[in-house]
Amino acid sequence: MPFNKFFLGNDSTVEDFATINNGVGDIYIGDRTRIGLGCTLIGPVKIGNDIRLAQNIVMSGLNHNYENISMPISEQGVTTYPIVIGDESWIGANSVVLPGVIIGKHCIVAAGSIVTKTVPDYSVVAGNPAKIIKQFNKLSNKWEKIS
Prior knowledge:
Layout: E1 6-8, E2 13-14, E3 19-21, E4 27-29, E5 34-35, E6 40-42, E7 45-47, E8 52-53, E9 58-60, E10 62-64, E11 78-80, E12 83-85, E13 90-91, E14 96-97, E15 102-103, E16 108-109, E17 114-115, E18 123-127, E19 130-137, E20 142-145
Parallel strand pairs: 1-4, 2-5, 3-6, 4-7, 5-8, 6-9, 7-12, 8-13, 9-14, 12-15, 13-16, 14-17, 16-18
Antiparallel strand pairs: 10-11, 18-19, 19-20
């Protein structure tokens, strides 16, 4: 298969047993970013600067097509939607980020979360599906729980 673009920024690290697959979409990893042990990135994925991905995270920008019931799913191709991770974010171990998700700047995804929707800047999300549990309040200058 033809491969797409791959970029690894300055002072960035991809740790052992990680899989970077740019077969169906570009992979961009910014500066000072660490991709943890055993992570899987399937493009299109754009990861910003100063990001921390813990262990065994899956980010896949593709879905297999399945609509035609007279054909095997493996013969129906794929659809891609880019994943974007904003600068200064931290994704906890064993999390999954689904196609089309944008995670904003300085966000935290708790370990084991399944991120199905866009996460606004300065938010903490957790769960399956991931929900906002904290946000930074610029008026109080504090992280506040969301009820």
